[in-house]
Amino acid sequence: MDDTIHRSYEGFAYVYDTFMDNVPYEEWAEYVTGILEEYGITDGLVLDLGCGTGSMTELLAEKGYDMIGVDLSADMLEIAMDKRSRKGLDILYLQQDMREFELYGTVRAIVCICDSINYLESEEDLLEVLRLANNYLDPGGIFVFDLNTPYKYREILGDSVIAENREECSFIWENTFYEEDGVNEYDLTIFRKEEDDLYRKYEETHFQKAFEPERVKELIREAGMEFVAEYDAFTREAPKSDSERLYFIAREQGK
Hints:
The protein has 255 residues and is α/β, with parallel strands linked by helices. The protein has helices at 10-13, 16-19, 25-38, 55-62, 74-87, 123-136, 150-157, 213-222, and strands at 5-6, 44-49, 65-71, 92-95, 107-112, 137-148, 161-165, 169-178, 183-193, 199-209, 226-232, 245-251. A seven-stranded mixed beta sheet has the order 4-3-2-5-6-12-11, sandwiched between helices. Strands 1-10-9-8-7 form a five-stranded mixed beta sheet.
């Protein structure tokens, strides 16, 4: 029987938190919360779009927001719900494609971080997400999202190989950046320790798109939203030529 399993995020979901343990989620949550507070959003319903295993969703819930988490991956959400149960948090998780997400009503803010937007395949997909965000935001509500920049894919990630070995799991991450299409392909090979102490091999291929910042602003406006700000990540400074991650803020504008 072939122990190699091909299914997006099936293998990676169960090692995701392990390999993301170097991400300063608390600092990221402080940054996002700071932006929300600047626009008068200190409580109420907030949607975490592309929530993954719920690490950011939980931190925002602990800061007093009524959180909804949306993600396409059932495996990611299974982990998120297990974590929610252990912490006793009141978070609603929904398995939905962000290009087609539906809510029961409007929310005060939407956040989408950790390059979830880069997983959209085209400008048309991004435009649809922005239109949905505008539809499901309260009047004047804001959408905060980040993006890996074309510079990062071209100069940092593209054609690189990243590997990490842990006792319970290891991975090899091979990147290929296709300049013409603005797409970064990365092939993941994951070895995960199972209950029988044997390691199972998983293989997955993921794609992320490098969106040009100026085009993102145009799409925000095309979706009927107001472009508010663009920051070099975790600052309030304008983007630089070598910025690796950008934050965008868009505001709901007349449905």
